[in-house]
TrEMBL record, chain A:
<comment type="function">
    <text>IGPS catalyzes the conversion of PRFAR and glutamine to IGP, AICAR and glutamate. The HisF subunit catalyzes the cyclization activity that produces IGP and AICAR from PRFAR using the ammonia provided by the HisH subunit.</text>
</comment>
<dbReference type="InterPro" id="IPR013785">
    <property type="entry name" value="Aldolase_TIM"/>
</dbReference>
<comment type="pathway">
    <text>Amino-acid biosynthesis; L-histidine biosynthesis; L-histidine from 5-phospho-alpha-D-ribose 1-diphosphate: step 5/9.</text>
</comment>
<keyword id="KW-0028">Amino-acid biosynthesis</keyword>
<feature type="active site">
    <location>
        <position position="11"/>
    </location>
</feature>
<keyword id="KW-0963">Cytoplasm</keyword>
<dbReference type="InterPro" id="IPR006062">
    <property type="entry name" value="His_biosynth"/>
</dbReference>
<dbReference type="Pfam" id="PF00977">
    <property type="entry name" value="His_biosynth"/>
</dbReference>
<comment type="subunit">
    <text>Heterodimer of HisH and HisF.</text>
</comment>
UniProtKB/TrEMBL annotation, chain B:
<keyword id="KW-0315">Glutamine amidotransferase</keyword>
<keyword id="KW-0963">Cytoplasm</keyword>
<keyword id="KW-0378">Hydrolase</keyword>
<feature type="active site">
    <location>
        <position position="183"/>
    </location>
</feature>
<keyword id="KW-0368">Histidine biosynthesis</keyword>
<comment type="function">
    <text>IGPS catalyzes the conversion of PRFAR and glutamine to IGP, AICAR and glutamate. The HisH subunit catalyzes the hydrolysis of glutamine to glutamate and ammonia as part of the synthesis of IGP and AICAR. The resulting ammonia molecule is channeled to the active site of HisF.</text>
</comment>
<feature type="domain" description="Glutamine amidotransferase">
    <location>
        <begin position="10"/>
        <end position="197"/>
    </location>
</feature>
<comment type="subunit">
    <text>Heterodimer of HisH and HisF.</text>
</comment>
<feature type="active site">
    <location>
        <position position="181"/>
    </location>
</feature>
């Protein structure tokens, strides 16, 4: 049976892993390659590395880092941040990334998803969507780390991403991120029902039960978290043993 | 031992090389027929689209080189599919090493369980056969990303269940193939690659 995936996310700034609370107050937590390898050994199913460095020099550092990750880590990994054209994706593919995620750049230029999928295949393209809850079923897609609302809505934009060739959706609820009160399960379940591609849930993990809920109530294919792993609040082996015990299909 | 990774217009070639480096082996990535023919082990990896990749293999003559190899050959993912007789992806005739057709996954009727295509993530290999899989690998999880599959048949070397039970590995004579990515399957994948290198 296909296992539900546990994905630690590492935000990278100037070559170091950082984790902010609600995307601000950034704290450094260590070397990305070392941390990634440790997570892989502990049973992480995939890793996500997001480059939050804006500068041109930072970009080069990030591509070099991706090469080091590819050499040292034996599970799939996605890289994202600052990918706005084909050449950015090509550099990361050549550095050894298994997938890339696009976020703000795809909102500004949706055709980017088509181009990436046509050139590298859908399996290479993760559409990352940050959204903020308005009311009822209404979620506004935001860009620039949640700071700027757009005219796009979560469910229609996610569908458009799939239609344009995205291979997965990584949905972060800006209302749940960093709050540790559980994932946005209702919105996630609706995404999963509406779409035919896998959904990665992000934002809100605080307890092991939250992962059980996101896989059952939220119908997510994968659960992503950062700080709870970085700050050792939840160990991946403990989490997987718990989920296995709760009858969630998981790779042990 | 001389290990060759066949270089062609497909992704993930570097990933395979990285995995071999982690196992302590140096491989060469080349499209040179002589080098490929002289290797002790040949790896035919691949992420990409079947018909364009097949067209490229025909143009370069790599198609004939591959089918005539006598040393152990390991096809991975698209590599495995191209070693079959025909693929529904672009409706193309392939290398015909394995007499099996490659078909597209169809979502089950009603799709009550929210099954997704592609089959992406970690799934189990069962009924493992051939020296590629020692008995300790029975039931282990490996990493898959694919939308097309090969049905169970006489060359099936491992079975995985997604929508239906299908061939997650094939073997015939000196040709071995996995639908999953051993190079991305953690320590389990490394054991499978090490088994191949020991053949």
């Amino acid at each position: 049976m296909l296992a539900k995936r546990i994905i630690p996310c590492l935000d990278i700034k100037n070559g170091q892993t950082v984790k902010g609370v609600k995307f601000v107050e950034i704290k450094e937590v260590g070397d990305p390659v070392e941390l990634g390898a440790l997570y892989a050994e502990q049973g992480a199913d995939e890793l996500v590395f997001l480059d939050i460095t804006a500068s041109h020099e930072g970009r080069k550092t990030f591509v070099d880092l991706v090469k080091r990750i590819a050499r040292n880590i034996n599970i799939p990994f996605t890289v994202g941040g600052g990918i706005s054209e084909l050449s950015d994706a090509d550099a990361l593919l050549n550095a050894g990334a298994d997938k890339i995620s696009v976020n703000s750049s795809a909102v500004r230029n949706p055709h980017l998803i088509n181009e990436l999928a046509q050139n590298f295949g859908s399996q290479f393209v993760v559409a990352a969507i940050d959204a903020k809850h308005e009311q009822g079923d209404d979620w506004v897609v935001t860009v620039n780390g949640g700071r700027i609302p757009t005219d796009k809505r979560l469910f229609s934009w996610a569908r458009e991403c799939e239609d344009r060739g995205a291979g997965e959706i990584l949905f972060t609820s800006m209302d749940h991120d960093g709050v540790k009160q559980g994932f946005a399960n209702n919105a996630l379940a609706k995404l999963s029902d509406n779409l035919n591609i896998p959904i990665i849930a992000s934002g809100g993990a605080g307890k092991m039960e939250h992962f059980k809920d996101v896989f059952t109530i939220g119908k997510a294919d994968a659960g992503l978290a950062a700080s709870i792993f970085h700050f050792k609040e939840i160990g991946i082996p403990d989490l997987k043993a718990y989920l296995n015990n709760e009858q969630i299909p998981i790779r042990i | 031992m001389k290990i060759i990774i066949i270089k062609y217009n497909a992704g993930n070639i570097r990933s395979v090389n990285n995995a071999l480096l982690r196992l302590g082996y140096e491989a060469e990535i080349t499209a040179d027929p002589t080098q490929i023919q002289q290797a002790d082990k040949v790896i035919f990896p691949g992420v990409g689209e079947a018909s364009t990749t097949m067209a490229y293999l025909r143009e370069t003559g790599l198609d004939k080189v591959i089918v005539n190899l006598k040393q152990p050959v390991l096809g991975i993912c698209l590599g495995m599919q191209l070693m079959c007789s025909h693929s529904e992806e672009g409706h193309v005739d392939c290398l015909n090493i394995f007499d099996e057709k490659v078909r597209k996954f169809q979502l089950p009727e009603g799709n009550m369980e929210n099954t997704k295509i592609p089959h992406m993530g970690w799934n189990q290999i069962t009924d493992v056969k051939t020296p590629l899989f020692d008995a300790s690998l029975e039931g282990e999880y490996v990493y898959f990303v694919h939308s097309y599959y090969v049905a169970l048949g006489e060359d099936t070397a491992a079975t995985t269940n997604y929508i239906l039970p299908y061939s997650s590995a094939l073997q015939k004579d000196n040709f071995y193939a996995t639908q999953f990515h051993p190079e991305k399957s953690g320590s389990v994948g490394e054991r499978i690659l090490a088994n191949f290198l020991r053949l």
